[in-house]
Amino acid sequence: MSIEVGSKLQGKVTxxxxxxxxxxxxxxxxxLVHISEVADxxxxxxxxxxxxxxxxxxxxxxxxxxxKIGLSIRKAQDRPDRPDRPERPARPSRPEGSGRPSRxxxxxxxxxxxxxxxxxxxxxxxxxxxxxxxxxxFLKDSEERISTLKRQTxxxxxxxxxxxx
Length: 165
What we know:
Blueprint: E1 8-17, E2 20-24, E3 30-34, E4 55-63, E5 69-72, H1 131-157
Parallel strand pairs: 3-5
Antiparallel strand pairs: 1-2, 1-4, 2-3, 4-5
Pfam family, one: S1
GO molecular function, one term: mRNA binding
InterPro entries: NA-bd_OB-fold (IPR012340), Ribos_protein_bS1-like (IPR050437), S1_domain (IPR003029)
Protein backbone atom coordinates (compact mmCIF):
# COMPACT_ATOMS: atom_id res chain seq x y z
CA MET A 1 0.00 0.00 0.00
CA SER A 2 1.37 3.38 -1.03
CA ILE A 3 1.38 6.03 1.67
CA GLU A 4 0.54 9.50 0.37
CA VAL A 5 0.83 12.86 2.07
CA GLY A 6 -2.58 14.02 3.30
CA SER A 7 -4.11 10.57 3.70
CA LYS A 8 -5.69 9.52 7.00
CA LEU A 9 -4.88 6.04 8.26
CA GLN A 10 -5.59 3.88 11.31
CA GLY A 11 -2.41 2.82 13.10
CA LYS A 12 -1.14 1.18 16.27
CA VAL A 13 1.32 2.78 18.70
CA THR A 14 4.39 0.51 18.82
CA UNK A 15 6.82 2.66 20.77
CA UNK A 16 7.00 5.85 22.82
CA UNK A 17 9.97 8.17 23.29
CA UNK A 18 10.34 11.55 24.99
CA UNK A 19 9.98 13.30 21.60
CA UNK A 20 7.05 11.35 20.14
CA UNK A 21 5.42 8.03 19.36
CA UNK A 22 6.07 5.45 16.66
CA UNK A 23 2.94 4.24 14.90
CA UNK A 24 2.74 1.12 12.73
CA UNK A 25 0.64 1.79 9.64
CA UNK A 26 -1.21 -0.66 7.38
CA UNK A 27 1.28 -2.40 5.10
CA UNK A 28 3.91 -2.76 7.84
CA UNK A 29 5.55 0.67 7.57
CA UNK A 30 6.19 2.77 10.68
CA UNK A 31 5.93 6.53 11.10
CA LEU A 32 6.62 9.03 13.85
CA VAL A 33 4.10 11.31 15.53
CA HIS A 34 6.09 14.17 17.06
CA ILE A 35 5.00 15.16 20.59
CA SER A 36 3.82 18.55 19.25
CA GLU A 37 1.43 16.72 16.88
CA VAL A 38 -0.24 14.51 19.51
CA ALA A 39 -2.84 16.97 20.84
CA ASP A 40 -4.08 20.52 20.33
CA UNK A 41 -2.89 21.54 23.77
CA UNK A 42 0.65 21.39 25.23
CA UNK A 43 1.81 17.86 26.07
CA UNK A 44 4.60 17.70 28.65
CA UNK A 45 4.70 13.91 28.98
CA UNK A 46 3.50 11.86 26.01
CA UNK A 47 2.84 8.89 28.32
CA UNK A 48 -0.12 10.80 29.78
CA UNK A 49 -1.79 10.83 26.33
CA UNK A 50 -0.69 7.64 24.56
CA UNK A 51 0.19 4.07 25.54
CA UNK A 52 1.87 1.31 23.55
CA UNK A 53 -0.85 -0.68 21.79
CA UNK A 54 -3.30 2.24 21.39
CA UNK A 55 -5.15 2.41 18.08
CA UNK A 56 -4.97 5.94 16.67
CA UNK A 57 -6.11 7.80 13.59
CA UNK A 58 -3.19 9.64 11.99
CA UNK A 59 -2.70 11.93 9.04
CA UNK A 60 0.41 11.60 6.88
CA UNK A 61 2.19 14.96 7.04
CA UNK A 62 5.31 14.14 5.02
CA UNK A 63 7.19 11.24 3.47
CA UNK A 64 10.93 11.79 3.11
CA UNK A 65 13.12 10.22 0.45
CA UNK A 66 14.88 8.00 2.97
CA UNK A 67 11.53 6.44 3.92
CA LYS A 68 10.79 8.39 7.12
CA ILE A 69 7.09 9.10 7.54
CA GLY A 70 5.89 12.12 9.52
CA LEU A 71 2.46 11.71 11.12
CA SER A 72 0.01 13.87 13.05
CA ILE A 73 -2.81 12.85 15.35
CA ARG A 74 -4.13 16.36 15.92
CA LYS A 75 -4.41 17.13 12.18
CA ALA A 76 -6.30 13.88 11.63
CA GLN A 77 -9.16 14.98 13.90
CA ASP A 78 -12.11 16.48 12.07
CA ARG A 79 -13.04 19.75 13.74
CA PRO A 80 -15.46 22.31 12.47
CA ASP A 81 -13.70 25.30 10.98
CA ARG A 82 -13.30 28.16 13.38
CA PRO A 83 -15.33 31.16 12.35
CA ASP A 84 -13.18 33.97 11.06
CA ARG A 85 -12.35 36.64 13.55
CA PRO A 86 -14.29 39.83 13.11
CA GLU A 87 -12.34 42.77 11.75
CA ARG A 88 -10.65 44.92 14.34
CA PRO A 89 -12.41 48.22 14.76
CA ALA A 90 -10.46 51.12 13.33
CA ARG A 91 -8.86 53.47 15.79
CA PRO A 92 -10.82 56.65 16.20
CA SER A 93 -9.02 59.61 14.71
CA ARG A 94 -8.02 62.36 17.07
CA PRO A 95 -9.45 65.79 16.56
CA GLU A 96 -6.92 68.45 15.57
CA GLY A 97 -5.29 70.20 18.48
CA SER A 98 -5.87 67.44 21.02
CA GLY A 99 -3.37 64.97 22.35
CA ARG A 100 -0.05 64.43 20.66
CA PRO A 101 0.67 66.21 17.43
CA SER A 102 0.39 64.08 14.34
CA ARG A 103 3.66 63.87 12.44
CA UNK A 104 5.49 61.17 10.55
CA UNK A 105 7.31 58.68 12.76
CA UNK A 106 10.81 59.52 11.58
CA UNK A 107 10.50 63.27 11.15
CA UNK A 108 12.65 65.63 13.21
CA UNK A 109 11.14 67.43 16.13
CA UNK A 110 11.06 71.14 15.33
CA UNK A 111 12.17 72.49 18.72
CA UNK A 112 15.03 70.07 19.45
CA UNK A 113 18.56 70.33 18.18
CA UNK A 114 19.81 67.54 15.98
CA UNK A 115 21.80 64.82 17.67
CA UNK A 116 19.36 64.22 20.51
CA UNK A 117 20.29 67.33 22.49
CA UNK A 118 23.52 65.85 23.87
CA UNK A 119 26.73 67.80 23.66
CA UNK A 120 27.43 70.98 21.75
CA UNK A 121 25.69 71.80 18.52
CA UNK A 122 27.59 70.73 15.41
CA UNK A 123 28.48 74.29 14.31
CA UNK A 124 29.69 75.44 17.74
CA UNK A 125 33.27 75.02 18.91
CA UNK A 126 33.78 72.81 21.94
CA UNK A 127 35.36 74.46 24.94
CA UNK A 128 38.66 72.80 25.80
CA UNK A 129 38.61 71.14 29.20
CA UNK A 130 41.85 69.95 30.72
CA UNK A 131 42.33 66.45 32.03
CA UNK A 132 42.69 67.77 35.57
CA UNK A 133 39.32 69.57 35.33
CA UNK A 134 37.64 66.41 34.05
CA UNK A 135 39.23 64.35 36.82
CA UNK A 136 38.22 66.74 39.59
CA UNK A 137 34.62 66.82 38.27
CA PHE A 138 34.56 63.02 38.16
CA LEU A 139 35.88 62.72 41.73
CA LYS A 140 33.32 65.24 43.02
CA ASP A 141 30.42 63.39 41.31
CA SER A 142 31.73 60.05 42.52
CA GLU A 143 32.01 61.19 46.16
CA GLU A 144 28.46 62.59 46.03
CA ARG A 145 27.11 59.30 44.72
CA ILE A 146 28.95 57.24 47.33
CA SER A 147 27.72 59.43 50.19
CA THR A 148 24.14 59.17 48.89
CA LEU A 149 24.42 55.37 48.68
CA LYS A 150 25.85 55.17 52.21
CA ARG A 151 23.01 57.27 53.59
CA GLN A 152 20.41 55.10 51.87
CA THR A 153 21.90 51.79 53.05
CA UNK A 154 22.35 53.04 56.62
CA UNK A 155 18.71 54.12 56.77
CA UNK A 156 17.64 50.66 55.57
CA UNK A 157 19.75 49.00 58.26
CA UNK A 158 18.34 51.22 60.97
CA UNK A 159 21.21 53.68 61.35
CA UNK A 160 24.78 53.38 62.50
CA UNK A 161 24.02 51.48 65.71
CA UNK A 162 22.47 48.50 63.93
CA UNK A 163 25.67 47.15 62.39
CA UNK A 164 26.56 43.60 63.26
CA UNK A 165 30.12 42.44 63.63
